[in-house]
Specification:
The protein has 286 residues and is α/β, with parallel strands linked by helices. It has helices at 5-15, 27-40, 58-71, 86-95, 109-125, 157-167, 191-200, 215-223, 233-249, 257-279, and strands at residues 2-3, 19-23, 44-49, 76-83, 99-102, 129-134, 171-174, 205-207, 226-231. The relative contact order is 0.15.
Length: 286
Amino acid sequence: MLVTLKEILKDAEQKQVAIGSFNTPNLESIMAVIGAAEELDVPVILMHAQVHEEIMPLDVIGPVMLEKAEKARVPVCVHLDHGESIEYIARAFRLGFTSAMYDGSLLPFDENVANTCKVVKMAKEYHASVEAEIGTLGKREGGGPDSEDSVQIYTDPEDAQRFVEATGIDALACSFGTAHGLYLKKPQLDMSVLDGVRQRVPLPLVMHGGSGVSEEDYRAVIARGVCKINYYTYMAKAGGQAVREKILQSDGQPVFFHDIVNWGIDGMKQDVKHALRVFNMQEKER
């Protein structure tokens, strides 16, 4: 069932849970994410990041994401992640994406506001939702391992309030200590940033760089209004690890590509299921 971001996050707010939002740059990851969500009977978000255009073009993977979402037995939002240009976001809306994130976080405040307003106006024409960001995560989506020189700009709660009031967005992404990619050390999350934003912003909050965060921290941010958690790196890593282990177990026997695909799907699916249980506060295995 295809739904908008606004619809799916409204349900999350009411239940005080977070929706898992997964980058799916290929068919295998789409199948893993929807399969996990259907088994647990929870809503989910499929995302395509503009930075993944070189891995898989939007015009190729977008229609697949939409078809799988429409046929899913659970609510699914199809979302463009980190859209850096308005034209790229327009392409996603024309395909049928029900939501997009405009990422103008590296721009001056006023320019970020102006561009975000253009995206919000465009989204209304397509009955779609808009997420935007204040603060930066230090590196792009799909980045490598975290490093000492990753520079972050934490979200200023007062700027967040001004930004939301000026743009009319549906969800706000905050920077408070997470980063894209693999963590080499435990992330130190500044919960005071979230508390400050929550006091001033009456919108669902979004956590980027969600892979690798502890279950305790996940629950802490959800309690502070985070309703959408972006997750990709550790899912992709789990798929690769599953393939690696199976190949090592093959003991020199022929390995066929269709087996590799299925091993990867299953590895990603198990990781997604674990993440979804945590985001939905399902502590017991089903």
